[in-house]
Task: inverse folding
């Protein structure tokens, strides 16, 4: 049944509308949110299971056949990412009631949370460049509302930057889509890919490709376009930061991955070679940012940038191992970034500050939290046998087989620095003498730890269960390296 | 107390609002195969409602039209989504539409399309959103 593809988009949309109806009854919205997010996770899991065991599912909405109608494509990459999105979303749905104030909850948090998931799932599933833009707008609209939720002065200041930069890049996005339509006469991604193949990727198309890369790089927060990201991601509530950090930048890097593995693959020396350098600079500058600050939320927000760099590096080398590494790392990073944001949210809550210089000795009061952070830092930095290690191993195999030694060294150094930047939270925040002043009177962390444990369990499974996961990831990589499969499955020639 | 002299506005509003609402319904029903549609119909309706708010004041109109416009947004969206989901029952792709001709006593033969239902959802949403935005700005001190 091909309608299955639309369910991960429609369920959150419907759920968002329904919880908006019951807005004032917080108990009802909380329960409904949990139920709908679990339902959606189930559907996403079923969808990926079908896609992985049989074949990609294509839905031509309204019976308008591709390339004339709007299509949704659940291929292995898209369905894997939709599944990961929903894993993250469930954790956030359970964390939110304990983290948000009642005022934030009754200002339609849950509705916008679902609209955000709608946009993200839609962006992953669409097979049409213009619809990608539409779903970007859906998720951005929701994110505009979420970022100002609470209405503090600093939120309003950061959200102006956030809205302006995103509006500007959206304008460029539409312009780029118009250029592509002008050059090849279609916005269906499979057909664009086919026509670019026939026409050859000439100067105009390469320019448009770079323009598109610029747009997606702004959303993905790559060097040098990341300046807007870290500060605006830490101003909203923790759970919103977690959603943003896990999903929004990843939609950007997913779009790069999709467009530059399917459509613009004929001038590798021009596009993909550049990506490697941008990836290297993103890693370096991101990790320097993370080291430069004592704000624990900002440390994690800066850590998003090197992660995006790692994913782009795999695309840059564009071989089997590199692409597997990118896909694996993308999934790994979505989960672990959410977990880390949620952990620092709890730390900031129990310590009453997010400034590292003002805390210490937390381990005497919250040992469990401390060790969760410790494990999460290991997962993030890639200590074996955790998932970061598998991802980086695949990526570095990819770069070394292309003899890209410089980027390999940069990647290794920045991994080490990432570990240090997160360990700094552990060392400064948790080590130290027991605070006797009663500053850290035991606060209740009820309900906050569960979602973190759940996410870390997935992360550890990704690493320990690599034996089962890596073959699927490698099949995705083979699939991405051969655009013909995608084109044929959509256009059915 | 200052009392605005708005006799002309009030008199014309009662006439214009009536015409606008009628025209909105026409636009809504014409929508699926000629110029018009739920979106533009919704905007025209919202314009009529806002005109009434301007002429008669918020308290009076709230009494005449006891509608929660925020709820109207949800109702409209649900209508539109459920219309799309209707395709699941008939085992056809999402958002597929169909139409048929029916005989009605006064109107004669009329074409009814399922796209119409979707348009009604859009109509409610647009009315709800537009009026909510304008009232929020108007109430803002």
Result:
């Amino acid at each position: 049944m091909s309608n299955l593809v639309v369910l991960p988009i429609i369920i959150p949309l419907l759920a968002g509308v329904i919880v908006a109806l019951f807005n004032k009854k917080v108990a009802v919205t909380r329960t409904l949110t949990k139920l709908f997010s679990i339902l959606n996770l189930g559907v996403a899991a079923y969808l990926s299971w079908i896609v992985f065991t049989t074949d990609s599912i294509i839905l031509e909405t309204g019976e308008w056949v591709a390339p004339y109608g709007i299509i949704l494509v659940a291929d292995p990459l898209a369905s894997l990412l939709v599944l990961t999105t929903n894993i993250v979303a469930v954790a956030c749905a359970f964390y939110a009631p304990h983290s948000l104030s009642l005022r934030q909850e009754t200002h339609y948090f849950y509705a916008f949370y679902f609209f955000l998931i709608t946009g993200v799932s839609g962006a992953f599933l669409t097979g049409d460049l213009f619809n990608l833009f539409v779903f970007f707008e859906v998720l951005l609209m929701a994110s505009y509302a979420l970022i100002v939720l609470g209405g503090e002065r600093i939120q309003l200041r950061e959200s102006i930057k956030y809205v302006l930069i995103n509006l500007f890049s959206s304008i460029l996005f539409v312009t780029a889509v118009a250029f592509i339509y002008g050059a090849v006469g279609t916005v269906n991604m499979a057909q664009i890919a086919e026509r670019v193949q026939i026409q050859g990727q000439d100067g105009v198309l390469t320019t448009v490709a770079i323009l598109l890369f610029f747009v997606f790089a702004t959303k993905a927060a790559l060097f040098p376009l990341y300046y807007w990201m870290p500060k605006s991601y830490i101003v909203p509530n923790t759970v919103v930061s977690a959603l943003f950090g896990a999903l929004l930048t990843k939609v950007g890097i997913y779009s790069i991955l999709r467009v530059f593995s399917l459509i613009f693959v004929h001038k590798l020396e021009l596009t993909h070679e550049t990506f490697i350098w941008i990836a290297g600079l993103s890693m370096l500058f991101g990790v320097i940012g993370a080291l430069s600050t004592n704000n624990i939320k900002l440390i994690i927000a800066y850590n998003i940038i090197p992660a995006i760099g790692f994913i782009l590096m795999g695309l840059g080398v564009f071989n089997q191992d590199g692409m597997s590494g990118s896909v694996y790392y993308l999934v790994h990073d979505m989960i672990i970034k959410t977990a880390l944001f949620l952990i620092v949210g709890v730390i900031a809550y129990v310590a009453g500050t997010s400034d590292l210089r003002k805390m210490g000795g937390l381990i005497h009061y919250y040992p469990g939290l401390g060790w969760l952070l410790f494990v999460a830092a290991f997962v993030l930095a890639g200590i074996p046998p955790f998932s970061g290690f598998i991802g980086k191993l695949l990526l570095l195999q990819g770069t070394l087989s292309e003899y890209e030694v410089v980027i390999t060294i940069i990647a290794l150094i920045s991994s080490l620095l990432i570990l240090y930047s997160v360990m700094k939270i552990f060392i400064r925040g948790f080590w130290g003498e027991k605070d006797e002043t009663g500053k850290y009177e035991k606060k209740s962390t009820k309900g906050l730890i569960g979602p973190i444990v759940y996410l870390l369990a997935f992360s550890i499974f990704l690493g320990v269960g690599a034996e089962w996961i890596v073959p699927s990831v490698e099949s995705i990589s083979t699939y991405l390296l051969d655009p013909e499969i995608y084109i044929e499955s959509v256009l059915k020639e | 107390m200052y009392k605005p002299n708005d006799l002309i506005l009030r008199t014309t509003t009662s006439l214009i609002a009536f015409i606008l609402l009628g025209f909105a319904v026409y636009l809504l029903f014409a929508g699926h195969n000629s110029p018009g549609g739920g979106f533009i119909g919704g905007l025209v309706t919202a314009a009529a409602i806002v005109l009434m708010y301007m002429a008669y004041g918020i308290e009076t109109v709230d009494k005449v039209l006891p509608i929660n416009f925020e709820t109207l947004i949800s109702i409209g969206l649900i209508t539109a989504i459920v219309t799309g989901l209707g395709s699941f029952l008939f085992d056809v792709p999402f958002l597929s539409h169909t139409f048929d001709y029916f005989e009605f006593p006064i109107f004669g033969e009329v074409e009814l399309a399922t796209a119409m239902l979707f348009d009604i959802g859009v109509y409610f949403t647009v009315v709800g959103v537009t009026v909510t935005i304008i009232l929020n700005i108007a109430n803002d001190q």
Observations:
- Chain A is about 75% helix and 0% strand.
